[in-house]
Amino acid sequence: MFIDSYIVGLMRKEFFDPLNARKTLLVFCCALSCVLFVQYIFRLLSQIKKLPPGPWGVPIFGYLTFIGHEKHTQYMKLAKKYGALFSAKLGAQLTGPLWKDQRRFLHEKLRNFGMTVLGNKKHLMENRIMTEVTELLVTLSSVENKSTDLSRYLSVSVSNVICNIIMSVRFSIEDPKFKRFNWLIEEGMRLFGEIHTIDYIPQIQYLPGNINAKNKIAKNREEMFDFYREIIEEHKRTFNNNNIRDIVDAYLAEIEKAQAEGRDGELFEGKDHEIQMMQVIADLFSAGMETIKTTLLWLNVFMLRHPDAMQRVQDELDQVVGRNRLPKIEDVPYLPITETTILEVMRISSIVPLATTHSPKSDVVINGYTIPAGSYVVPLINSVHMDPNLWDKPEQFNPSRFLDAEGKVHKPDYFIPFGVGRRRCLGDVLARMELFLFFSSIMHTFTIELPEDEPMPGLKGIIGVTISPQAFRVNLRPRPLHTELANMHTMAVC
Ligand code: HEM
Question: Where does heme bind (predicted)?
C-alpha cells in the first residue's frame, strides 16, 4: 500500500520537471531498495528464528569454511552443542522424479535376483554370495599362517558379488582390468571428497584446483564408461528376453518394452538410455563394493582387538553350525552372538557417518522449528550411534547391548547404519546377507591373529566416502576341519 502510493506521486512530479525527475527517481530507487532490504532482513530474521538453533558462520559461505575434512566429527560437535536438531547455512537442492523411477525399478529387479528376506528367491542371492565366499576361503588358505593384508582379497570377492548381480562379470585378483577399475573408483572417491563444497557453492567449481579435479573425474568416468559400454554391447549381442541374467539385461528388457509400446521418449525422462544405464551401474558398483569391504575390515580389526569376542562367535558357530559345513542364512536366528557382533561393529564404526542429503519439497515443522522447503537435511548417523543418551557407554565395544533379557537380538529404532526414510539404503538386504556370510565363514575357518612385530590396528579411520580402517595385517590360523571345509583346503593345496 505504502509503495503503491509512492509510485503515483512520483509519476506526477516527473511530468512537469524532467531534470529533477531523474534525481527523484534515484532517491526513489534508493528508498525502494532500502524498504526491500529491510523487508528481506525481517523475513530472514523471522525465518532464522523458526530454524533449529545452530552456528551463524560467515556471509556467503555460512558455516562451510569451518567444516573441514572431518565433516562428521565437526557435525557431531555441533550436535553436542545445539542438540539433536540443529541448522547450519550451507545451501539447497531438490531431488526429482527420475530418482524415484530408477529407485522403484532397481528395487523390483534386485528383489527378482534374490535381494529379499522372504520366499524362494532369497537362495538365489545366497548362492551367488557363497560362490565368492568359498573362492575367498580357498585363496586365504593358501596364505594361512603368513602375515597377510586382507583388503585386496576382500576387494575382489565383494566386487565379484555386485558385478555378478549387475553384469554377470567376475574378476581374478591379478586381473589388470580389475586393478585399474579399483584404482579408478578409489581415485574417484578421493576426488569427490576434495571438491564436495561445490555442492553448496556451485560458483567455486571454476577455481583452478576444482577444475582440475572435475576434469580428472570426467576422464576417469569416461574410461569406466568405456568398460561398461563393452559389457552392454556384449549383453545386447546375447540378449534373450526369456532369460534375464542381471541388471543390465533388466534395463535392456525395459528399453525394448518401452520401444514396443511407443513410449521410449518418456523412459528415464527422455534422457539418453545408455548413459542412464551406465550411471546406475557405476553407482551400484561403488555403493555395493566399498561399504561391504570396509565393514568386513572393521570386523577384523575389532576381532583382533577383542579376541574374547571372536572366541564367543567361534564357539557359537561350532555349536550351532557344527564343523561339517559353512554357515547359511537360515542359521541366522540361532546365532545371536554372531549377529550382534556384526551389529555392534556397524554401530561403532558407522562407516557411512552422514547419510545422503535429503531435501523437503515444502516447509516442514518439527519440534516447533520450521525446516524451509529446499533446505539440505543431513541425517548424522554417527552422532546417533554415539549418543550417550541412547547407548550405555557408546565408546565401548559391547555386542551384548543388542541382546534383550531373553538373549534375543533387539535392534532399537535409533540403530540406523542404512539411513532412514525414503532414501534408505537400497542394498540393505544384500549388505546384511553378505556381511553375515563372509564374516561367519571367515570366523568358522580361521582364527585372526596379529602377526609378530605388527602394531595393533587403531580405531581412527581414514576419511573418504566411507570411514575405513588404516592398513593392517593379520595371521590366519586355520581351525580344525571336517568334510566340506577339508575338501576346500585340499582344493587350495592342489
Ligand atoms: C554395510 C553396508 C552398507 C551401508 C552401511 C550402507 C549405507 C547407506 C546409507 C547410509 C545410505 C544413505 C541413506 C539415506 O540417505 O538415508 C545408502 C544409500 C544407498 N545404498 Fe547403501 N549401504 C551399504 C551397502 C549397500 C549395498 C551392498 C548396495 C548395493 C546394492 C547399496 C546401495 C545403495 C544405494 C543405491 C543407495 C542410494 C539410495 C537412494 O538414494 O535412494 N548399499 N547406503
Answer: 425
Tell me what pLDDT residue 9 has.
28
Ligand 1: centre distance to CA 491 (Å): 36
Residues with Cβ within 6 A of ligand 1?
Answer: 103, 283-284, 287-288, 291-292, 295, 351-352, 355-356, 379, 381, 417-421, 423-427, 430-431
CA–CA separation, 387 and 76 (whole Å): 9
Cα Rg of the chain (Å, integer) = 28
* Alpha carbon nearest to ligand 1 atom 16, residue: 419
Q: How much distance in Å is there from the Cα of 242 to the middle of ligand 1?
A: 30
The predicted complex's ipTM stands at 0.98
Distance 286 CA to ligand 1 centre (A): 10
Does residue 425 have a known ligand-binding role? Answer: yes
Report pLDDT digits (tens) over 71-127: 788 788 888 887 777 777 664 443 465 566 777 778 887 877 766 666 666 788 899
Specify the ligand 1 atom closest to the Cα of 358.
15
- The crossing angle, in degrees rounded to 10, of helices 150-167 and 176-194 is 90
Say which residues have a Cβ less than 8 Å from residue 277's Cβ, sequence separation at least 6.
Answer: 228, 232, 248, 251
In order of 9, 24, 34, 37, the CA distances from 30 in angstroms are 16, 10, 6, 10
Residues of the chain with pLDDT under 70: 1-19, 44-45, 47, 56-62, 64-69, 89-100, 114-121, 193, 196-197, 199-201, 203, 480-481, 483-494
**Alpha carbon 425 to chain centroid, angstroms:** 7
Nearest CA to ligand 1 atom 43: 425
Measured distance CA(245)–CA(237) in Å, rounded: 13
Please report, for the chain, the start and end positions of each structural domain, with discontinuous segments joined by +: 92-487
Residue of 425, 429, 434, 467 to mutate, ligand 1, most atoms within 8 A of C-beta: 425
What DSSP string describes 86-98? Answer: ------B----HH
Q: What is the pLDDT of residue 104?
A: 79
**CATH number attached to the domain at 92-487:** 1.10.630.10
